[in-house]
Amino acid sequence: SGLPIAPAPVMIDESSFEHPVVVSSWIDGDVDAKRPSTDQDWQSLLDHLLRVFRVTPDAVHIELPEAVNNANGSVAAGGLIEGEVSRFPDEHASDELRELVSRTRAWLDTCRRLRPEAAVLCRQDPKPSNFIRRPSGWASVDWESVGWGDPAFEIADLLCHPSYLATRLPSVGLWSMGT
Q1: Cα angle 104-108-111, degrees, rounded to a multiple of 5
Q2: Is the pTM higher than 0.85?
Q3: In which band, very low, low, confident or very high, does the pLDDT at 85 lie, cut at 50, 70 and 90?
Q4: Do residues 36 and 169 touch, judged by C-beta distance below 8 A?
Q5: Alpha carbon separation from 147 to 29, 60, 99, 154 (Å, rounded)
Q6: Of 13, 54, 108, 118, whose CB is crowded by the most CB atoms within 10 A?
Q7: 164-170 long-range contacts, CB within 8 A, separation 24+
Q8: pLDDT of 69-83, one tens digit each?
Q9: Cα separation of 124 and 158, whole Å?
Q10: What is the pLDDT of residues 92-147, one digit of tens each?
């Protein structure tokens, strides 16, 4: 895509090993399990993801699968939720569960009306050690799960990743970032 979001591929070997091997250029920066801890750190990481999201199927000629680790858009999320809810016999569903399902259905309906789900490049692997901190902005490594997906679900996956559970979440407005 020409964006400085990842190491550049140098060579691919599809015949010498059981699985294809990609050799990439080196990127200077810090790789560690340190999670964003300040609003500035979170904003920098989100800025990186926004650069990744600029890559669309129309912008590049690369065959990629649909990005689906769980759901890929509000329609798919609604289907997963409905499937799980259908497992509860009505007589065993609590009032709290019914209220949560009702609010979730309303939220998904609002999502469908507010914004079309446009496919963008999604990494699908928000583990902290897959992000490289550089003075010029972040970069990503470990792209083996990449696919076309919904950026809202990519950000949700990041915020829900177990590595970030003890981390203070950002106070930056995600909806004001153009996603």
Answers
A1: 140
A2: no
A3: confident
A4: no
A5: 25, 13, 34, 11
A6: 108
A7: 164/35, 164/126, 164/128, 167/35, 167/36, 167/37, 168/37, 169/42, 170/36, 170/39, 170/42, 170/43, 170/46
A8: 666 677 777 777 777
A9: 8
A10: 778 888 888 788 778 777 777 766 567 889 988 888 888 888 888 888 888 888 88
Q: Which residue did the predictor score with more confidence, 47 or 169?
A: 47
Which residue shows structure tokens 């294809």? 20
